[in-house]
User: Fold these one by one.
Assistant:
Number 1:
Amino acid sequence: MGTGGDRQDEIDTAAAAWAARLGGDPLSDAERRDLDRWLGEASAHRTAFEEARSAWDEMGRLRFAPGALRDDIVPLPAGARVSPLPTLGRRRARWPRVAAVAACLLVLVGGLAFWAGDPVVLVTADYRTAPGEQRLVALSDGSTVALGPASAIAVDYGQSTREVRLLAGLAYFTVAPAGGGEHRPFVVAAARGTARALGTRFMVERLAEEVEITVAEHTVEVALAGPTGVRSTVIVAPGQSVRYGGAGLGAVHKVNVERATAWRRGRLIFDDVPLGEVVAALNRYRHGRILIADRDLASRKVSGVFETEASDAALATVVRDLRISVASLPPLVTVLY
């Protein structure tokens, strides 16, 4: 069962999606009924929706006429200390406007997080890349990491293990084999799982709710810690892939390694892939964020070959082929519905 915070996040996300949807073409009759039904389910839905609509409207004004927000700035006396609660209290009649601007600023902060990256990752990463950037990292033992766009790793080489934590995105590892003076296993940790290798090439990718390991050379032992602490393991051979997540360790299956690693050559190749995963890949090449309004849409399948330097064209092609609609507030967010 999710926590109250998780539930509120879901409500806020749905409210933001509806607010963005209303910023596009008029709602169809079915969509209007869906919105009315969702609003009627709980007062928290209505509250979140009103705040999201206010924030969306303010962001639109800020985009076209930022000077119009000056009236919402409360001047302070010279030398005064900032005291936001008393200030808002003296202007109680203006609270709805101030709340809207506060919501707007929260969305803008979220947009900056999309732009600059997760602040936790920024602090903890030893190596990271910006959206659209690739980087080859040489580690102290002779191993290399081809870091994908919008990705980050932390390196922790100790006396018994060579560990790399994949904090975000994806990475292709070329591991220096054990031998001579090097006997420590090479382990990549991501979420609750690990991939352990000795002299091999493999890729690890953090998806929205899962982690995927794809092996190009030799073998990798993938292990996942269960909720009770019991570990499940599987051996992945060249040309195979496996995923793990909240549902546990998945089945090993064959994969086209050249296709899976095409991003290293400037291409994204999808063959009957859910739209949610396609959007996650495209988001790594954009500073703004693409969002999907509902799970049914996220599960629709996409096939195609796209250039990584043309993510806008790729998105336009997907939208056209799936016959879906778009609402956007450049450069922060684009919502597919």
Note: Confidence is low (pLDDT under 50) at residues 60-106.
Number 2:
Amino acid sequence: MSKLELVRMAKQNIAHAKAGTIVQAPDVFRVPASAYIDNERHDLEKKRIFKRMPLKLAATAELPRNGDYKAMEAVGMPVLLTRGKDGKVRAFINSCTHRGTYVAVEGCGDTSLFTCPYHGWTFNREGELVGIASREDFGDVDPSTLGLKPLPVLEKAGLIWGVLDPNSTIDIERFLSGYDALLASFGFENWHLFSKRTLKGPNWKIAYDGYPDFYHLPVLHRETFGADISNRALYFAWGPHQRVTSPSVAVPGPDARNPVRLDQKPEADWDTETLLSGVWTIFPHISIASFYGGGRGVMISQLFPGETAQESTTTQLYLLQHEPRPEERDEAERQFELLEYVVKVEDYDTGFRQQKALLAGGLDSVIFGRNEGGGQLFHQWVQKILETDDGDLNSLFPPVSQAAE
């Protein structure tokens, strides 16, 4: 079914390219300037979106082997992801149940036990408390009730989602709306983590607005991607998640000078790799963009809001389909440095200037055109989730059986 859906989207790209058309939103759309700069609104978004919705916390490539772990902070919550000896990924609040400090420092590694650096309490990869220092002196406690506090987690399509609320009842698979079946076509569970970097950015929505936006490409990125790149886009949505492609008969391939002309190949010869081009966004904070450099690769951008409305952080993961050979490493590094430059210097520096202008009070709202349907849909979902009570969140997304159809 996923291959058929990819083919269907490719046919739409070709048809729109030949007709010189795109699908347009019904009208222009306005977002109040305050939505980007107001700290009360920002705190509400962190509470009702990032603390309630499933977030992509890691790629399988970050903890691929039994015994691997990843410790991180997500919107102020210390999180520990582990892969147990059974191969299963688990998520916990990274907080010792004795006095609360972290049991693992931020980063990735491999271990069978996590020992708190404060008093030496020890936990295994399954989160169980397996050691209390000076147990005979401590007093009567039941270790079985003092394991690390688990968080809801799901690993699918080579990506790992978690919810920062340990009491959440949201259905992660339902939230994915069938989008994970398409992401599975990449085969990320077998990809190689080449590099990782973290950037500072402006307001998280200012930063995110650029990911599903092709309108700016030939203007803002004229020196890096070229002024002849198309500014037109087609948007395909699964719940709040989107894929963005250009209406074109040609798809980028390993040889940048010779893109793949799908309209000149029999449909039976359309390979999955070619059909996965474009930008894939996962609500509310992930972008996946395909590139070639040192082999086939993707840059996964993981965006989190900061302490104030004027701050965000983005971690860029550069995954390669295969570990590069020694002669490919320099090319892969150059490609990742280019992508970092594009986001940091072109996208985010522009975003900081936009933010400064909005803070000065020059505009009451910003506008998304009929050709910017991706941005419109993103902001509509932000507002929809802000207005939805906890018990009604699952109703926003199709049942898993329908999403799979």
Note: DSSP finds twelve helices and 22 strands in the chain.
